[in-house]
Structures are given as structure tokens and as C-alpha cells.
Amino acid sequence: MRPIRIGISSCIWEGDPHKKIFNGRRIVYLEESLGHFFMRKGVMAFLIPSPSSVYNDFGDYIQHIDGLVLQGGVDVAPGSYSEKVIKSDWQGDAERDLYELNLIKGCWQNNKPILGICRGMQLMNVAFGGTLFQDISYFKPEALVHRRADIYEKNSHEINFSPDSDLRKIYPGLESGVVNSIHHQAVKSLASNFVVEAISPTDKIIECIRMQQSSLMDPFCYGVQWHPEFQDKKDKRLLNPNSILEYFLEAIKIRLQ
Predict the structure, then answer these.
(1) Using one digit for the tens of pLDDT, what is the confidence trace for 133-143?
(2) What is the DSSP string of the chain?
(3) Which of 25, 105, 186, 193 is buried most, with the most CB atoms less than 10 Å from its CB?
């Protein structure tokens, strides 16, 4: 059997015309740890470039990948869920949103499993009609600090699994766990046909979502607000990241049989 092929959406760096590196050209990139996260399981990871004036149809990519991963990065633009920007710092990247929304739509229509990580979970929610908090502390000042630039992935907190969640199957015997936390936006209204898999118990921020299925062969969409692909290896409290990876890969395998 050939290796599983995962398509990963690009992060986009607009470039800096004031710096000599790349001469100000726009760069699409993959965070190294995410590629290695899949490669260590024998999976082939492919970065899907952003669209251009000469190529904007991702049908061929979708036909040749077995699943899609939406990686983290810049904010989701409020306009992508029909809201106005409250602060200029929260404008996000509407162009990247559109590119990834088209990937989500194509993979969903072709029953290619989708895993959303951090921003990826948020955009998955938006793709199916949900909305976001543009900034957690602005709308919920009593909330935990979900992002600390000074310690980055070392910032962590507890999550509680929902009673009927797949997380309880992924992590048998557990009803809660600890995850890293590197986000300032979050799910506000949940998309229809999705269920909450886990919340942060202190402030009720949604930390994991899943599209409902009537059978295992229905479209698979799963989102985690944390980053299983990189975390503090010294922190043994954290949930085993391989369990999420294996759960996603299993959804792909049953479609390749």
C-alpha cells in the first residue's frame, strides 16, 4: 500500500520590501514541526501553494491527496464571517481565508478528511457558518490568558472532554487533559452540524470541535485549538499528540480500503 498523502495549507508571508531577504517577494511556507509530525508516521506531507492568476483550481490537488490539514497562523479576517473589524490589529488575512475555504469545500465535497489546527479549527468553523471572538480578552475579560508570546508553547491549561466526545475514545479512561495554548481568537457561535468535543473549564472557551457523522464514511472534519505538532516535551502533563494524529489517519485509512 502506498504512503498516505496529506495536503497542508500554506502559511503566507507577505514579505518586507525594506529587507533584502527574498527581495520583498511573498513566501508560502510550512512550519517544520508540522511536516515532521506526519513524516514520523510514514506519511507524505505536501504543501499546497496559494492560488495565482494562472492557477486557482485546486481540483487536481484534492484528487491526489488523501486528507487536508489546515495549519495555524495569522488571524481569520472578521469579514470572512460577516463581521466588521473591531481593531486594526485583528484584520487577519482574507485572501488566505478564501484560499483555505476553497480547499475545505473541495475536500468536504470529495470526502477527504480534514484536520484543523488552531487557526485551522477556527476557519473550519467559519467555513460551515460559525463565527469567532475577534479577541478573547476583549469579549471575555475574565478568561484565561490563552496566548503568551513570552513563553509560547509552554503556555498551557486544562480542557474537559464532552461526555459523548471522540476525545474520550482517543484518550481512553480520561475525561480531561492539559494542552498548550497559543491563540487569542476562539469559536463564538458553533457551526451547524458540529459538536463541541472539549472546553476550557475555567472560561468555557471551545477547544475542540467535530462535524457530526451518521456513519464512519460521512465527511470527517475535526478541529483542535491547541498545537499537537509542537509542545513542550518536558511537560508530561500534556495529552499525547500521537493519539490525535492516529485518529486522523484512521479516518483516512478507512476511505482508502
Answers:
(1) 999 999 999 99
(2) -PPPEEEEEPEEE---TTS-GGGG--EEE--HHHHHHHHTTT-EEEEEPPP-SS----HHHHHH-SEEEE---SPPPGGGGT---SSGGG---HHHHHHHHHHHHHHHHTT--EEEETHHHHHHHHHTT--EES-HHHH-TTS-----TTTGGG-EEEEEE-TT-THHHHSTT-SEEEEE---S-EESSPPTTEEEEEE-TTT--EEEEEE--SSTTS--EEEESS-TTS--TT-TTBPPHHHHHHHHHHHHHHHH-
(3) 186
Q: Is the dihedral of CA 127, 183, 241, 94 positive or negative?
A: positive
Confidence of residue 56 (pLDDT cuts 50, 70, 90): low
Q: What is the pTM of this model?
A: 0.95
**Residues in the chain, total:** 257
User: What is the distance of C-alpha 148 from the center of its chain?
Assistant: 19
- Rounded Cα distance between 84 and 125, Å, is 18
- Using a 10 angstrom Cβ sphere, with 0-12 exposed, 13-18 middle and 19 or more buried, the burial of residue 234 is exposed
Please tell me the predicted confidence (pLDDT) of residue 1. Answer: 78
